[in-house]
Amino acid sequence: MTIELAQVYGFCPGVRRAVEMVNRHLHSDGPLATLGAIVHNAQVVDALAARGARVAEDLESVREPAVAITAHGAGKALYQELARRDLELVDTTCPIVKRAQEAAKHLAENGYAVIIYGEAAHPEVKGLLSWTEGWGHATLDPNAVPPPRGGKLAVISQTTKGQEAFWTFVKHMVERMKTNIQEMHVVDTTCPETGRRYDSARALAQRVDAILVVGSRNSANTRKLAETCQETGVRTHFIESADEIEGRWFSGVDRVGVTAGASTPDEAIEQVIDRLRALRRGGV
Ligand code: SF4
To answer: Which residues pair with 125 in a beta bridge?
Structure first.
């Protein structure tokens, strides 16, 4: 049985950077609290907790001297509150999210109503909205876009939304509202990383008889990766760890593919490869 990895899989650069920053702080400065899970993966969160990174739901429950903001970023009020409480900040906001925050702030300061193509309840979108000082609105529905601000309308995106979907939204929005818009600014703040994992998984599905998708079941991007594989018709197994692999899955399989979500750590993927190699050798 041949084992083949997707061309792009596992940690995206933003999540890898966030985990590295927290690890560096633990190593050199000691314990810290992370505001929410630093990555949607229990293995990584448990490993960081064992080293002194506790997950805190809010600032009220923080007892540590330092606080890490996740790669999703945070709103302006949180930065102010951290400073007021004199807490050290480990800011792991992904540079791509930071760019979207800067765009939101700049556009609102320059008189635009800022439309965010995204889910209003998502932590990243909540953060983006806060940088618009009340001039932002998040929606996925082009028919729900409020009127421009003095004729000025700007659009940005939640970073993990697909680029094609973003531009389709913009097109429909413009068709509906063009008579009200005098000036418009569009900033494509989508991140290519999630899409690259889906494209690579689709390409891999063409070359193999079965695919293992490795990642946490509470990770939205890994669940979507598994759905993407299933949609191609290839036999797909969504697993959290190597322990879940069953030998009977590979009867009649000549080529097996492996891919992993943007929140899946390298170790989990390596353990899956090791287990597949053991099965190939006739081990258990
Ligand atoms: S998916 Fe993109 S925007 Fe999100 S953390 Fe990863 S690199 Fe950053």
So the answer is: none
Q: Which residues pair with 32 in a beta bridge?
A: 53
pLDDT in tens, 146-199: 999 999 999 999 999 999 999 999 999 999 998 899 999 999 999 999 899 999
- Domain 13-94 identical in fold to domain 96-186: no
Going edge to edge, which strands form the sheet with 183-186? 136-139, 113-117, 152-157, 183-186
Maximum CA extent, the chain: 70
Please give the CATH number for the structural domain made up of 2-10+193-280: 3.40.1010.20
- Alpha-carbon distance of 282 to 284, in angstroms, equals 7
- CATH 3.40.1010.20 at 96-186, yes or no: yes
Strand 88-91 with 66-69, pairing: parallel
Regarding beta strands 136-139 and 32-35, do their DSSP bridges make them parallel or antiparallel, or are they unpaired?
A: unpaired
Nearest atom within ligand 1 for CA of residue 192: 2
Integer Cα distance of 101 and 273 in angstroms? 38
| pLDDT more than 90, % of the chain | 92
Tell the CATH topology of 13-94.
Answer: Rossmann fold (3.40.50)
How many angstroms separate the alpha carbon of residue 73 from the centre of ligand 1?
Answer: 11
CA of 128 to the centre of ligand 1 (A): 14
